[in-house]
Design brief:
This is ABC transporter ATP-binding protein. This protein is an alpha/beta fold. It has 9 helices and 10 strands. Helix 5 runs parallel beside helix 6. It is globular. Bound molecules: adenosine-5'-diphosphate and magnesium ion.
């Protein structure tokens, strides 16, 4: 579904990503792990078009993503969340989720000309209510972000990401700042949106129990390069991974 081929990214003299390749298969939960500074977020930025690699290719459903403008990536069915929450505090929860809707303008204009905007509006409302129900935030729709716990805000962010009906979502450290209970909730939500909404997930995350529990496949990066790839079991027992990452994580 999404293929990263020999991607290299440089920031001045620093090579942040070096000849990186990985393939994310449709319907899977694929995690990308590695120490801070390994190049994980930079790779997300390449996929979403905000960072241009010096070489390499990114192919999504047979199309070269590097030719797509960053603001148009979302029309291809790719969304992401950020390391820091980016919700609007002046909008309520319903409106925040609504802000994730991507309009297919051709479709909209035809709807309006035919006087169907009312049913179109209802479709959107039903869609938002359905997602809010799925994520357990239906009773928070009229609250404002500043009134809610961090765990709930994370769910709102996920709701906003899936309201555009993406084919794949890139999550950058979604469990950062969450307690164990909230992390377990996020784990359930990922399983739900993966299975029920058939959304492929690419996950960057430091919480190893979350990664090991939900990943079909794990890719490990260190200093911009891929050092290992495999199932959770294979990665947990890979000596180099333990040396450069998992060991360090245990001591932390
Ligand atoms: N916009 C940027 N300009 C310069 N250097 C950057 C930029 N973004 C990231 N880097 C550097 O690239 C390397 C990889 O960073 P990043 O992709 O954020 O790593 P990770 O997400 O794995 O922690 C780091 O050395 C970081 O300092
Ligand atoms: Mg990062």
């Amino acid at each position: 579904m999404l293929e990263i081929k020999n991607v290299t990214v440089k920031f001045g003299g620093l090579t942040a990503v070096k000849n990186m390749s990985m393939t994310i298969e449709k319907g899977k939960i694929h995690s990308l792990i590695g120490p801070n500074g390994a190049g994980k977020t930079t790779l997300f930025n390449v996929i979403t078009g905000v960072v241009k690699p010096v070489s390499g290719e990114v192919i999504f459903q047979g199309k070269n993503l590097l030719k797509v403008k960053p603001e148009e990536i979302i029309y291809k069915g790719i969304t992401r969340t950020f390391q820091n929450l980016q919700l609007f505090n002046f909008l309520n929860v319903y409106e925040n989720i609504y802000s994730g809707i991507v309009h297919n303008f051709n479709g909209d204009i035809i709807q309006l000309i035919n006087g169907k905007s009312k049913s179109f509006e209802k479709d959107i409302r039903d869609k938002i209510l359905g997602i809010a129900e799925l994520l357990g935030i239906k009773n928070r729709l009229s609250s404002y972000p500043t009134q809610l716990s961090y765990g709930i805000l994370k769910r709102i962010e996920i709701a906003r990401a899936i309201v555009s009906e993406p084919k794949i979502i890139l999550f950058d450290e979604p469990a950062a700042g969450l307690n164990t209970e909230e992390t377990n909730e996020i784990e359930d939500i990922f399983k739900l949106i993966n299975k029920k909404r058939e959304i492929t997930i690419l996950l960057v995350e430091h919480d190893m129990s979350l990664v090991m529990n939900i990943s079909d496949k794990i890719t490990v990066m260190s200093f911009g390069e891929k050092i290992a790839e495999g199932t959770p079991d294979e990665i947990a027992n890979n000596e180099e991974v333990i040396k450069v990452y998992l060991g360090e994580n245990e001591n932390a």
